Amino acid sequence: MSSSAEQESRSPGSANNPGSEEKRPQKRKRQEEDDEQQERWKVQKTVEGHCSKVAAHYNELQECGLAVRNQSHIVYLRNFNNWIKSVLIGEYLEQVKQKNRHSISVLDLGCGKGGDLLKWKKGQINKLVCVDITAISVEQCIQRYGDMKNRCYSNKHLFAAEFVRADCTKELLAEKYPDIMFDICSSQFVYHYSFETLQQADTMLKNACDRLRPGGYFIGTTPNAYELVKRLEASETN
Ligand SMILES: C[S@@+](CC[C@H](N)C(=O)[O-])C[C@H]1O[C@@H](n2cnc3c(N)ncnc32)[C@H](O)[C@@H]1O
């Protein structure tokens, strides 16, 4: 995935880089934060499997605003990911429009805090259903949509939206919106959380397909596990 962006964020701390010394304390701090996070996860109950840890992790992430996000050490990776999503969403919305669909409905599986709301607005869709396992993310997604609506002039179109909190690997969602068929199901950087068991992966796939209109599209992004392990093994701090 993201080779150029990852290299960019990684290179200042590399052994050959003259700036690597001054980056070390920052690196150590990050390592300590990671260790603390691992400890917190260890004490959480594991009976519910990975999903409760995933939800707890995303519940803890604060919405910190654009300025702080731009200071993040993964800002280039985020930008790269966003660019990929924009291209993907733009391309498949175009395909749907070419089929003369006048009212476009989209399911966002694992919507997070609503990082793609603006992309759906630009794509002029008509209906969006946002689903996520993390309660706080769904709340922030609703808030973002509300802000977007408030900023919209009355003559400007904004899609209608529904928000659902659910574990998409364990609950079948079709019953929650029986009357809607989707032109696109979009699941961005989410699918890798579904492979804890075969049954969970199967439920996630059912959720992606159940209400997809014939000829509709599933679009998704997921990290390349082989590439991640390869890079971890090659890293200085492995
Ligand atoms: C990396 S974030 C991506 C968020 C959003 N799709 C985006 O691209 O901005 C992954 C999201 O998947 C959600 N997620 C993980 N496991 C899930 C599950 N079993 N059911 C629903 N959502 C899940 C997390 O809560 C998180 O919001």
From TrEMBL:
Keyword check for RNA-binding: yes
Segments of skewed composition (Polar residues): 1-19
Class in the EC hierarchy, top level: transferase
One term under GO cellular component: nucleus
Native organism: Scyliorhinus torazame
Protein name: mRNA (guanine-N(7))-methyltransferase
EC number: 2.1.1.56
An MF annotation (GO) of this entry: mRNA 5'-cap (guanine-N7-)-methyltransferase activity
